[in-house]
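User: tokens in, sequence out, please.
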């Protein structure tokens, strides 16, 4: 029996507890939160043995084999290091750490201690993502992908999170180096990182504040991001994060030397894109029929999963946790390589540095502008 603990008892902890309890031969032996009432309510709503408000007591008394860290991102590094030093395997929710250096320290510690460590990039393990990965492995794309496009939409009208962030000038997300972006975009970047071959690709980032946030006098939270990612003579990618774009899609497009793929994460749809065109007017009739057929097949696959009770919203998280536990029990490869975790952290470091430099210039220009106008009037 694998003994599991959860540190951090907010909303995401509920999802972790639900999926852990779906997995056989494991039990939640303890939960911990610096606010005792949060830990208590989680313990009372799930079959959990104990709750704590002190991490060291949790580790000493519950003696878990695995710890899931679901706290705010700024605490991930210290909590993960403490758990690793106590001999526990660790699952860290996204974003993994605040920067690549912290990620590197944790990975080095895990390897030296012969422990397992993973990041909560659960979107990589949904049913549709696994179908996509199987097609790529079979060579459907040909050589590649040679280009990718990842879109990650975000609804600032969500009252459970975004409004709390916008209404609280001291919200913990505002203390992150990348603020809102840092807490969200690792899912979208991880989809790209999986297929990159370089450990340090070129990253060109442009971020800005949407008209919606400007209208409420919010200038510190960037909610629009456009990124170009390039490898030397190899793969390129575009990443788009937007709170304004409608529909608010979560999508990945892969283009190889033979064919392409569209992965629609919102609707669990996988579409094959034929690389060559049909002759003459056939190109106007056969592709629509092909897409219609594919959509029907996707419908059938989703209905089948629903009827088999394997179509819940957090199926990707459950699969990732299962794979992580299997790697621990059977000493198998990790579901997410350390290289990929570091690559996502490295790209985030690069783009946040660019955004910080640009935003400082923007704020300086905004502060100087009234002086320029005043000087012009007085002269």
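Assistant: Sequence out:
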């Amino acid at each position: 029996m694998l003994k599991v603990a959860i540190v951090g008892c907010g909303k995401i902890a509920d999802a972790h507890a639900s999926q852990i309890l779906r997995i056989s031969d494991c039990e939640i032996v303890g939960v911990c939160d610096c606010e005792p009432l949060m830990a208590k309510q989680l313990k009372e709503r799930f079959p959990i043995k104990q709750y704590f408000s002190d991490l060291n007591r949790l580790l000493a008394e519950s003696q878990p084999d695995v710890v899931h860290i679901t706290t705010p991102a700024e605490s991930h590094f210290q909590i993960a290091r403490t758990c690793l030093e106590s001999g526990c395997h660790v699952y860290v929710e996204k974003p993994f750490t605040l920067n690549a250096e912290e990620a590197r320290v944790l990975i080095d510690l895990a390897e030296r201690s012969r422990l397992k460590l993973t990041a909560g990039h659960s979107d990589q393990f949904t049913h549709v993502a696994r179908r996509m990965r199987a097609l790529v492995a079979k060579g459907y794309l040909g050589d590649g992908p040679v280009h990718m496009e990842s879109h990650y939409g975000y609804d600032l009208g969500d009252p459970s999170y975004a409004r709390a962030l916008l209404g609280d000038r001291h919200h913990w997300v505002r203390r992150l180096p990348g603020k809102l972006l840092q807490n969200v975009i690792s899912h979208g970047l991880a989809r790209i990182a999986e297929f990159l071959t370089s450990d340090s690709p070129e990253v060109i980032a442009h971020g800005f504040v949407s008209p919606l946030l400007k209208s409420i006098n919010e200038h510190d939270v960037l909610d629009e991001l456009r990124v170009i990612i390039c490898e030397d003579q190899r793969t390129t990618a575009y990443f788009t994060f937007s709170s304004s774009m409608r529909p608010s899609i979560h999508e990945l497009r892969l283009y190889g030397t033979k064919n392409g793929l569209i992965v629609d994460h919102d609707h669990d749809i996988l579409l094959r894109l034929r690389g060559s065109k049909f002759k003459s007017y056939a190109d106007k009739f056969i592709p629509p029929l092909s897409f219609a057929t594919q959509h029907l097949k996707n419908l059938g696959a989703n209905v089948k999963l629903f009827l088999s009770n394997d179509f819940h919203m957090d199926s990707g998280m459950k699969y990732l946790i299962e794979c992580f536990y299997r790697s621990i029990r059977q000493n198998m490869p990790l579901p997410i390589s350390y290289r990929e975790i570091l690559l996502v952290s490295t790209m985030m470091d690069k783009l946040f540095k660019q955004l910080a430099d640009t935003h400082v210039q923007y704020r300086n220009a905004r502060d100087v502008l009234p002086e320029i106008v005043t000087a012009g009037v007085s002269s």
